[in-house]
Amino acid sequence: MDQYQFLTFQPAYIYWYLFAMFAWSLMLPAVLQLARFTKLGVGHIVVISVLIALVAGYVEQIGWMFSLSRILVFFPFFVLGYYFKSQGWKIYQAFPNRKIAVSVMMIVALMMWIWPNLFQFGLLSGANSYSKIGLTDTGPIVRLVLYMVQCVMIVAFFTLVPRKPFLFSHLGTKTLTIYILHGFIVKGLVAAAYFNELTVERVLLLPFLAFLLVVVLGRVPLRFQLSRIIFKNDKHNQKT
Q1: Alpha-carbon distance 127 to 62, whole Å?
Q2: What is the pLDDT of residue 183?
Q3: Nearest Cα residue to 111 out of 155, 172, 152, 54
Q4: Greatest CA separation found in the chain?
Q5: What pLDDT score was predicted for residue 2?
Q6: Which of 67, 23, 75 is nearest to 49 (CA)?
Q7: pLDDT tens across 171-193, in order?
Q8: pTM
Q9: d(C-alpha 212, C-alpha 217), whole Å
Q10: Concatenated DSSP letters of the chain
Q11: How far apart are the C-alpha atoms of 113 and 7, rounded to whole Å?
Q12: Which of 151, 162, 167, 35 minimizes the C-alpha distance to 98?
């Protein structure tokens, strides 16, 4: 029982993301109002949010507490997602064809093999300051490069997504439900010592378990949605 703790101000496991979604839902309307008042465009808002995330890495007090570091680090993606939806932008049009998207993914996979420090968990998680992950001098540069790589990978991924609905397309509307519920099943597998000894058979079984998990949880009659304030702003922008 010593391994379990009740953390009031430090969301852990999947719960950090839920708290971050709550924070982003409050932050976005304020940012949109500020943008209208200062007449800033989407590019300015994204650049400012990225700069804040880069500077936040120098502040050691900004870390796991309240998921503050992750909230700041991943907020630029939340802003981009909102604008892509509200403006009707098609992200997959950035690459002319899928062959280029696959090539980009292979190049990034090669980068992960050559420069593993660029893709270390401490940096990818966005939960720690530069000093805590040993990147005091190069932290902002590495984080900025990682931002660019992540954006390119997002574009490459959506380039490969089918344009027309197919058998499992409806699961795309259930991603938050699947994300929340899958955590309980994963914890159950951990409690059952499934991951204690990863044999070849168990490793090969994991993709099939993941697929089955997505399909089953995608049918659960449960729905989560973001703040209505966001949808209100979304409709307002579409009219204007």
Answers
A1: 8
A2: 87
A3: 152
A4: 58
A5: 52
A6: 75
A7: 887 888 888 888 888 888 888 88
A8: 0.79
A9: 8
A10: -TT----SSS--TTHHHHHHHHHHHHHHHHHHHHHHHHT--HHHHHHHHHHHHHHHTT-TTSSSGGGHHHHHHHHHHHHHHHHHHHHT--GGGGSSSHHHHHHHHHHHHHHHHH-GGGG-HHHHT--S-TGGGT-TTTHHHHHHHHHHHHHHHHHHHHHHS-SS--TTGGGGGGHHHHHHHHHHHHHHHHHTTTTTS--HHHHHHHHHHHHHHHHHHTTSS------HHHHHHHHHHHH-
A11: 36
A12: 162
Q: Which amino acid is at 192?
A: A
For the stretch 47-70, pLDDT in tens is: 999 999 999 999 988 888 888 999
Phi, psi of 230 (to 5 degrees): -65, -45
For the record, the structure tokens of 183 come out as 């955590």
Q: Answer whether residue 115 shows pLDDT above 90.
A: no
Comparing 126-130, 162-166, 174-178, 229-233, which segment has the lowest mean pLDDT?
A: 229-233
pLDDT band per the 50, 70, 90 thresholds, residue 225? low
Are 118 and 111 a contacting pair, CB within 8 Å?
A: yes
Residue 177, token pair as written in the block: 């439900």
